[in-house]
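step: validate -> pass
step: tokenize input -> pass
step: predict -> running
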Amino acid sequence: MNLCKKTALMLGALATMTAGIAAAQTPLTYDVKGASVTLYGDVDQYLNFMHSSSGKNLTALEDGAYLRTRLGLHGEKNVGDGYTAKFALEQGLYSTSGAQADSSRLFDRQAWFGIATPVGEFRAGRQNSVLLVRGGYIDNTSRTLGSVINAFGVPSRYDSDLAYISPRMEGFLFEAHYSLQGSAVGSTTNQGVYQLALDYQNGPYQVGYAGLGGKPPAGSLYTKNVTYDNLFADYNYGRGKVYLAYVRSNNNSTTGSGTGLLYNGGSPLGNVGALMSGTDLGVYTTYDIPQISADYQVTQKLRVGGLYGRIEDKSGTGKNATGWNLAAYYDVLKDTMVYFEVNSLANSANAGFRPSGSAGLSKTFTAAADVNGQTIRGVQAGFVYKF
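step: predict -> pass
step: emit ->
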């Protein structure tokens, strides 16, 4: 079946999927012993067609192109003298099957308690990284499906995380985190993960930095720390934004050896809070990822955008890739958005990167022959319903 016919079928199926969605309701908020507690969440489902230049195709109903499906509780209580107690509990889900995103946890996305004070907010627990919460500053996709930076990988959250978030003052906002033990609660290795972010807003302009780093355990085979540094600059021209972003990181595994393994696999530091093992040779390969993006508000409900980016292997071993994405987002109901995307990710001969959304793909190319050195093209159509 050619791409045009496949696209037409996907759009028809999307119309069927969204036809039964009722008008959205406001989030459910309750008063619990003086605290305002809100039940919230979203459902994100999409049809995904992907083609590898190896000749292989795949078609799947997936979860989480734009937002991982989730269910959460957020609470606040004024405790006097300008102080507010806060908490968040959030669980990721596969809306296609009902399974938990992480079966080993009850709240895999967030589980923290905090105090907002006149001088800033202090939090402790499992929290989103400074990189994840700034996705909307990176590109028109909010650094999700179709984003080249997202295809490289983004460290997203850590356990046992102590955080401080400043108020915005004179346009500046500062954020700092330190995770005492990564994601291994009770570990005695004391492998800290540190995070810093600073951004500045002035009218239509915004610039900033967000980054983190982690270290391997003492006595590791490979002792180099993992770092992830992200610079960004945005300009709001009235009907949309122009986004410039640059990432420099060594948080990518290099597992290929010509024996059927993917050239680019997981991440030494992990994307959801894993501790470094110190056994991943990939820490000695650093990548630069420059990316440019823009969007345009065609009507009050319709936004379109595109991006182009490169993954550049600075070790000289040719693990490079280029990618682009075109997308349209339409607010069909108050809290329901439909989207359509077309994208491409072209690997050089020694690279094996694969597309990913807000949630990882449950059905993707896994054979090295379909990924390494191949171009992966995709068409996606889906919806996000928030409550």
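step: describe -> Confidence is low (pLDDT under 50) at residues 6-11, 13-25.
step: cleanup -> pass
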